[in-house]
Amino acid sequence: MEIQGEYFETMELQGREYFEDLVMRSFFQDFKLSSGAYSKESCKMHDIVHDFAQFLTKNECLIVGEVHGGQRIVSGHDARHLRLMQSQDKTDFSFFPQLRSFLCKNIKIPPYLFNHLKQVRLLSLGNLENIPEEIGNLIHLRYLNVSGNFSLKELPDTVCNLYNLQTLGIQRLYSLCGLPEGIHKLKNLMHLLNRVTAEDF
Prior knowledge:
Residues 8-53 form the Disease resistance protein winged helix domain. With 201 residues, the protein is of the alpha/beta class.
């Protein structure tokens, strides 16, 4: 376990070095700073880099919903990354069998969603009153963010089956009563993001 911890620490340090190198080359801009040891909390891609990245990933990254007053058409069986910007009740998620990341906020999640996210690595969900137990089937998940779901009172025990999970975001969950008893099973968990969440679990 100590060796595994050293591996993740080295990997994170290497990632920070890559990031700082890209900062020096002006790939990023508009930094927001935090008071922590690692002061850069968020940033944006430079506009030119952003446009080029969009061009390279146009068949892999999809945004569904209103974007700058228009509609981005859902197409491409090879899509790897999907973001829902508004309620899409008729979206057929079986059309995206290879999704690696799925982000949505302020929309209602269809109950069958987790049947079509078997390969997902990153999952960020909003507007939840509860999380279906089927989330435990997403065994490849590395990053789970349910922050800001004010009505969410508990996480299902099946979250503890996500043995590849490295980051769990539960910030601003004012109604959360506690964490599942088996949370210690998440041996690969490195980051528990719980700012402005009840501390008396």
